[in-house]
Amino acid sequence: QVQLVESGGGLVQPGGSLRLSCTASELNLEASAVAWVRQADPGGEREVIICISSSGGTTYFTDSVKGRFTISRDNDKNTVYLEMNNVKPEDSAEYFCATRYFACDSIPRRFSRWGQGTQVTVSS
Q1: Phi-psi map region of 26: left, alpha, beta (phi>0 left; psi -120 to 50 alpha)
Q2: Burial, 47: exposed, middle or buried (Cβ in 10 Å; 0-12, 13-18, 19+)?
Q3: Which is the most buried residue in 30, 82, 114, 123, by most CB within 10 A?
Q4: Tens of pLDDT along 30-64?
């Protein structure tokens, strides 16, 4: 059974850093486009913020994270990371990793597999 498991969320102070992980089982992340998607409010809209394609290219879909967040993939560990630096209160959200075949996309519903999410709270 395909599973995506996120980890690394928690409480962080403004200006701090956090690294989220997304590890897959029964799915080769190297062959997938993998995105980090966040949802600020339960039941609210999800926002694709950044994505790494199967070829390793990075696409930012949210301007506010450019220069602060990076995405990377460790093929040996079958894990994708989100490095969050200089975090801001507005980055507080549930963060999900999601995958789809082929290219990255800005539309959350176009991703077919999702993890359960990890909460990030930015507060002093």
Answers
A1: left
A2: middle
A3: 82
A4: 889 999 999 999 889 999 999 999 998 999 999 99
